Amino acid sequence: MVFRFLSLCFIFFLIDCASQVLTQIPIQNETYQVSKQIQWNQKPTEFILKNTSLDKSFIELSLDEAFLTASEVDTISKYRMASFRFEESTKRTCSDQTVSSIKKETGKITIQGKLTGKNCTTDYQVTFQTKSDTEIEFKITVSDEKLNRIQLVYASLPEEKFFGLGEQFTYDEFKGKKPFFFTEEQGIGRGDQPITTGANLLAGAGGNAYTTYAPIPHYISSENRSVFFENSGYAKFDFDHKKKTKVEFWDFQSEKSLSGTIWLGTSSKALIEAYTKKTGRFPKLPDWAYGTWLGVQGGTEKVTAIVKQAKDAGNPVTALWIQDWCGRRVTNFGDQLKWRWYADETLYPDFKKFVKSMNDQNVQVLGYINSFLADTDPKKPGDDFTNPLLTEAKSKGYLVKNEKGEDYLIQTVGFPAYLIDLTNPAAVKWTKDLIKKNLIGMGLSGWMADFGEWLPYDAKLHSGVDAKVYHNRYPVDWARINREAIKEAGMEGKIVFFTRAGYSYSNAYSTLFWEGDQMVSFGANDGLPSSIVGLTTSGISGYALNHSDIGGYTTISNPLKNYHRSKELLLRWAEASAFTPVFRTHEGNRPLKNWQVYTYTKPDGTKSLGDEDTVQLFAKIARIHFALKPYIQSLVEEASKTGLPVVRHNAIVEPEDKTLLKYKYQFFLGDDLLVAPVVEPNEIVQEVYLPRGKWTHFWTGTTYEGNRKIQVSAPIGKPPAFIRVGGNSEMLIRSSLETIRNKK
User: What 3-state DSSP class applies to 500?
Assistant: First the structure.
């Protein structure tokens, strides 16, 4: 019989009851003890799965509307420069829901029923399985395999806040927001004007507040609840409603179900530890990684001179990152690389000998690689570029295919290229052998493992996996292959590679993240401020070791407005980076347009933008970072054991302080060093909000009572930072920094 639904509709016949869940079994107030501390409560209006000792719910499902909806939707992807646009056509939707049975077992609850709609009917099953008293796994299946989209709706509180969601750059909290999850180019501008409009007009590449290289469908809420979805298809989360959350995943049938995990805890730290126990944690960095990584290119003579210049200024240089080790290729976008992964003996004669000479000076050398193989540019008359690795990969069938079964030619920024098919075991072995021979074999101590977000939506892959769900997994496999090559070479713990694209489980494979290609600007959405938000959000979802290009990367010359790096921006970015795990510079895509941390005159008389004052100030800021080595090292070790990020969101360290949450450009290094970097131009005084307790200003030694705002002087070279008085690491920080605090 149809109990609750018919009685309600009979009494309230003027009310539209179509959206309510039709219950074909009697739903009365009932509780069932699933485990010692987990209880199932069912009422005529809702289902609740809760932890009784914490008095918190894992999930609440309202019966006043369908909590499950499934649809069949045709989707066409518009793809340009790894910026994706989708055209959707809904064929049918099962939006009416019935519950026909609820099976209660020890440690498990199973709900079954039907979803129906016009020309649409399917059975469904929802299972909740306890893993511990604070962890449950859920799995949702529908029987009609043509239904390729699913939406889950569950309760949230009006005051509940949501943090994490991978690496986000605009928002650090998501109540009222509608983020989506699809790894792609973050965009040029992402809302900052006029560059976003210009990038959209020219290439559809402006991005928006949610475009990111490294999303993760995982969040922690202010209710100390953590939710993680295993699926890798395109997803949308809707936190806009005050009392409910909607989650939609595409192509879930390719993965057989919608599944995930929910944790409850007493703190956000406990939840991060639980999440990373499941998804992976970063290894410790080698000892050499805590000094300055100079990002320089241009050949042996130039990079050698700049390393010497920096060291002479007292800069603790421990690494030289030369992305053009494989050769330089100039395009309309700027200085790019020859995407063929072997040393360029023209720029770096006897490259292996050069690497050893740097090592002898206690400077490790890092290079660059990505999963593309570049081709000759047909738009460039007389292009003499050749790529023997591409020829080999083509002949052996190692490349991603298009719908016609041909090698998928992709127009990247500057030239065409092909992606290696990471689902092909032979191609994976070939790639790892290439890394072991041409990078590790040359003595490199690490590299940027770039890209990973460019797999086309309609690609055909060797394994037969649908590209729609493999797209987000591609960067995870790219990191895994790099890590495996290092292990197979016996160099685990000695080599660091850093990735920018990622998704769930990237933290199990990557040794370090970086935030990709920010604009060389103070723009809130894509400049220096956005790099702070990227650090704090990503740490909540497992990216415990992360950093950015000091000074940003994307440089644009435009009649309306030039985006060229200024001296002020470069040094302010360095100040913020001094309080992150890795301190690494980048010249940007147009080095001669950007202010640099060095001075250099080429043989033809061309001078870089930079001056001696910058060299000295940058060295001073670098010494701050290096002095913090013992503290940062302790945080990296903690991250390897617990998953807690080195750079921490305010909500992790001081979750009860609602005022502090408004200061999204402040962050914590560990728990005991509060950093308030200057992220706006022409500012020499900074407003800082101090949370509870007492805080000692790093530069003056003045101690302030917390729970208030203060104004502090913030000249370049003295970034606002405060030590927690009585913190566990107070004396470690003080001893680390005492040698430089009073230096001018």
Answer: coil
Helix, strand, coil percent content, the chain, rounded in steps of 5:
25, 30, 45
Q: β-pairing, 372-374 with 22-23?
A: unpaired
Q: Which helix (H) or strand (E) holds 139?
A: strand 135-142
450 flagged as catalytic: yes
Q: pLDDT of 214-269, one tens digit each? A: 999 999 999 999 999 999 999 999 999 999 999 999 999 999 999 999 999 999 99
Contacts of 268 (CB under 8 A, 6+ apart): 163, 220, 224, 540, 651, 652, 655
High-pLDDT (> 90) share of the chain, %: 90
Q: Which amino acid is at 11?
A: I
Active-site position among 477, 517, 549, 587:
517
Beta sheet of 694-697, edge-to-edge order: 647-648, 667-669, 673-675, 721-724, 694-697, 703-705
For residue 46, give every residue at least 6 positions away whose Cβ sits within 8 Å of its Cβ, in sequence order, or none.
Answer: 60, 61, 62, 63, 64, 155
Give dist(CA 362, CA 567) in Å, integer: 29
Burial of 525 (0-12, 13-18, 19+ CB in 10 A): buried
CATH 2.60.40.1760 residue ranges of the chain are 4-279
Comparing CA positions, the residue from 218, 185, 188 lying closest to residue 537 is: 218
Average pLDDT over residues 79-85: 90
Q: How many CB atoms lie within 10 A of CB 726?
A: 9
- The alpha-helical segments, DSSP class H, found in 97-253 are 195-203
- 639 phi, psi to nearest 5 deg: -60, -40
Give the residue-averaged pLDDT of 698-707: 96
Residues 4-279, CATH architecture: Sandwich (2.60)
3-state secondary structure of 432: helix
Q: Which of 238, 324, 375, 453 does the annotation list as catalytic?
A: 453
Residue 1 pLDDT? 34
Measured CA to CA, the distance from residue 431 to residue 332 in angstroms comes to 29
Q: For residue 743, what pLDDT is reported?
A: 56
Decide if 517 is catalytic.
yes
The half-sphere exposure of 516 on its side-chain side, counting CA atoms within 13 A, is: 23
pLDDT of residue 740: 76
The C-alpha atoms of residue 421 and residue 551 are separated, in whole angstroms, by: 34
- CATH 2.60.40.1180 residue spans of the chain: 650-741
Q: Which tokens go with 285?
A: 């960095």
Q: Residue 727: which of 643, 623, 622, 635 has the closest Cα? A: 635
Is the Cβ–Cβ distance between 599 and 591 less than 8 Å?
no
The 292-295 sheet, strands edge to edge: 546-547, 513-514, 496-499, 446-450, 364-370, 317-321, 292-295, 583-584
Distance CA 207, CA 185 (A): 8
Task: Tell me the CATH number for domain 650-741.
Answer: 2.60.40.1180
Compute the distance between CA of residue 441 and CA of residue 452 in angstroms, rounded to an integer: 24
Parallel, antiparallel or unpaired: strands 96-105 and 22-23 = parallel
Tokens of 80: 């340009």
Sequence-ordered list of residues with C-beta below 8 angstroms from that of 4, at least 6 positions apart, any chain: 23, 26, 27, 44, 63
Q: How far is CA 651 from CA 54, 238, 396, 643, in A?
A: 20, 21, 51, 16
Q: Residue 196 and residue 215: Cα distance in Å, rounded?
A: 21
Among 172, 192, 450, 515, which one carries the catalytic annotation? 450
Least confident stretch, 428-432, 601-605, 722-726: 601-605
